[in-house]
Amino acid sequence: MTEAAKATGRRKQRKGTVVSDKMDKSVVVAVMRVRRHPLYKKTVRSTKKYLAHSPNNDVRTGDRVLIEETRPLSKQKNWRVVQVLERGEQVPQVSSALIEAPLEATE
Q1: The pLDDT of residue 96
Q2: Gap between the Cα atoms of 44 and 33, Å rounded
Q3: pLDDT in tens, 45-71
Q4: What is the distance in angstroms between the CA of the first residue and the CA of the last residue of the chain?
């Protein structure tokens, strides 16, 4: 954290959507930014992905979360999940037996 951030007591915060929760105590959060192109004045969307620490593993893919900057927790993980703003709809798991079932041959 920089001296200016310490003086004000503020850390950077971002709102984003969880795109992966396959790691233990970590999630990938995609933060979308909308800005105007300086020359062409067209609205441009850009997405950046952040690795964030989720100590309780209670965050799932599709959730909207608030993440906050923190000290380095690993090589790429400098953010932590502060709160879940909105739960995403859960996609039901498809049984692997249905996927791997052999097709009946029609003669």
Answers
A1: 56
A2: 8
A3: 999 999 999 999 999 999 999 999 999
A4: 70
